Amino acid sequence: MATLNRPHALLLPFPAQGHVNPMMQLSTILSARSFYITFVNTEYIHDRMLKSGSTKSMADFRFETIPDGFPLEHSRTHNELSEVCKSMVDICPAHLEKVVDKLKGKSDVPPLTCIVYDGCMSWAQKTAIKLGVPGISFWTPSACGFYLYLSAPLLMEKGYIPLKDQSYLTNGYMEEEISCIPGMPLLRMKDVPSFYYDATNYIFEFLITQTQVGMSADLVLINTFDELEGPVMEALRDRLPVYSIGPLLEAEQKNGLSNSFASLWTEEKSCVQWLDDQEPGSVVYVCFGSVTVMSDQELEEFAWGLEGSKQPFLWVIRPDLVHGTSAKLPMEFVKKVKGRSFFVSWAPQLEVLCHPSVGGFLTHSGWNSTIESICAGVPMICWPFFAEQQINRTYVSQIWKIGIAMNDVVEKREVEEMVKRLMIGKEGEEMRRRIGEVRDASIRAVNKGGSSYNNLEKVLLKMEGKYRI
């Protein structure tokens, strides 16, 4: 197809690995369907992707960058998340307009057909309206997580959020039941996204605003599938033009594509060779994602719990995993687990989860990790950190029954017990059976005629401008 006749999608992720990855997966699928791709990152994120080699497999993409307003030395960690969110609203819209103007001036670039923006970048809908093209909101959390973000006005009206003060985190209020959200099971306050606890935090208002602005999107996409989150998707469809199009990593494979991952760290492939020498289904994979931080005490509790389980394990320990200092494990612990442990600072996660030696996943319950674990058929131990990870834990452990929920307070005895429950005995076997069924359902969803396949076909037609929105 001649370049100028191709549909042209501009994709704008929120600047964090858990948001860039699914947007990259969607971009790869669009590219395979003859879309011209312009992928817009912040300068900081793009530089990290270049250093990790993540852009090498996307040679056909056009990458553009916008500043985030911070100096290079700014850490951009979860502690500065409010600053990052504010900068996205205050600084980035004008720079996105400049990118659009630049593209208009290129004689070898086809006209923009649509703008796909992260749900946390819903301000980009105004740019789409100005251009007269569809604005498509892509939410990277689970459908249940997105639905809770969308339900903030209702939860405020009912008096559940924000918390009156910090004491409500420990006085029993977090066990308060919530039954007012159509399409969702009985919840507790501890399932509500952590960003909605404190109204003085900028992110509280930011998420409410971006979610409500995003309701004007021409299409809303979620990386899930109806067989997994059907009741929630039905409730959302009553309010929005929403489509489940996942799991995107399964859709990539179905289209004969290599899975695309925008890693901001260099992956240490040596861990795969170590896995090759382990017994089938014996290894616990431990990874808390790209943002989670913990205390020294929590790190030690996890360590000694893993030691006590006597199971082999592969543990991803980022240098910044411990808040305020470098992550260091007790030497006595390292000596005791020598021979049945492997430590890396970052791993090729999907490859690890799909390895036959891996039988369980101790995770922070981020949605990307959860959906990857489902697609690999690996049950989980869930220790959520923030955002909507708490509701993911509840659905994994109580609704889908494909994992175990840990308490928020880390104790080595509980870690040991959880690992043994998951890896040994009938309970773990039942979870493996159930997650195998869910994995099979995810494959059916992206196969021709499946729910996500059909949804994606409709979305592609609308993105190409061949179907009235």
Strand content: 5-15%
Give the integer mean of the pLDDT values.
Answer: 92
Low-pLDDT runs:
none
Number of strands: 15
How are strands sequenced across the largest beta sheet?
Answer: 3-2-1-4-5-8-9
Helix-and-strand structural type: alpha/beta
InterPro entries: Glyco_transf_N, UDP_glucos_trans, UDP_glycos_trans_CS
Keywords: Glycosyltransferase, Transferase
Catalytic activity: 7-deoxyloganetate + UDP-alpha-D-glucose = 7-deoxyloganate + UDP + H(+)
Enzyme class: transferase
Task: Walk me through this protein's architecture.
InterPro entries: Glyco_transf_N (IPR058980), UDP_glucos_trans (IPR002213), UDP_glycos_trans_CS (IPR035595). It holds the Pfam family Glyco_transf_N. Its EC number is 2.4.1.-. Belongs to the UDP-glycosyltransferase family. The protein is built from 19 helices and 15 strands. It is α/β, with parallel strands linked by helices and 469 residues long. Strands 3-2-1-4-5-8-9 form a seven-stranded parallel β-sheet, sandwiched between helices. Helix 2 (43-52) links the parallel strand 2 and strand 3. Helix 1 (17-32) runs parallel beside helix 10 (248-254) and helix 12 packs across helix 17 (412-423). The longest helix has 21 residues, at 426-446. The radius of gyration is 22 Å and the shape is globular. The chain starts with 7 loop residues before the first strand and ends in a 6-residue tail after the last helix. The model has no long low-confidence stretch (mean pLDDT 92).
